[in-house]
Each structure stands twice: as C-alpha cells, then as structure tokens.
Task: structure prediction
Amino acid sequence: MLGNYTEPASTSPSNAGNTLPTLTPDFVSPGASVRQITPDPDKMRQVSGPVVKRSGMILYVHDVTGPVVPLDMTNLTIHKQPEKGQQVLALYQVDQTDNVALSLQGEKLD
Result:
C-alpha cells in the first residue's frame, strides 16, 4: 500500500521529458521572478517576430512591423530561454522605461 503522501502523476505536457529544465545560468526558478507588474489592458502591447539576441533577462525581438523591441523578462518564470532566430509572440507592458514581458509564446525552429 502506498503512503498517505503520494500524489497522482500529472498528465500536464509541461512534465514531458524533453521540457525538463536544465541547471544552467539561463534557468529561472519558478517563483523567482524579479519584477512584479500589474497588467493593465490599456497599456499592453504585442510583438511578434524572430529573436535577434538575448542578453541576460533582456530578449530582443525583431517585430514584423520593423523595429527591434527589447523585452524585460524578469516578470516571467522561464523554463527554457528562447534562442536566436526563434519565432516568438509576446505580450508586454511599458513600466517606466522598460518593456516588461507579460507572456511569451514561441516555437523552436528546426
């Protein structure tokens, strides 16, 4: 018989083997976000395009409309950092002088 402390295995896709986090400096632990921002629908913006570069927790995305948009990812819990050339879609909000990412979606290019 199993003890009282066992829990059923999760069927969440986030528990798949290929999505397990690695212990690298790029990994941000769950709950370890640096910045907390209150989303305001009137201030939200969207950027979509390829990642140009990543510098620490700043992600530079070449928006389909032309400009390169720096995104501060310290509000997010990131398990796998986006790579250069990867197509992403981000929702962000301007907080003082920073574009703070509220969400980040993307697909790795093969």
Q: What stands out?
A: The mean pLDDT is 75.
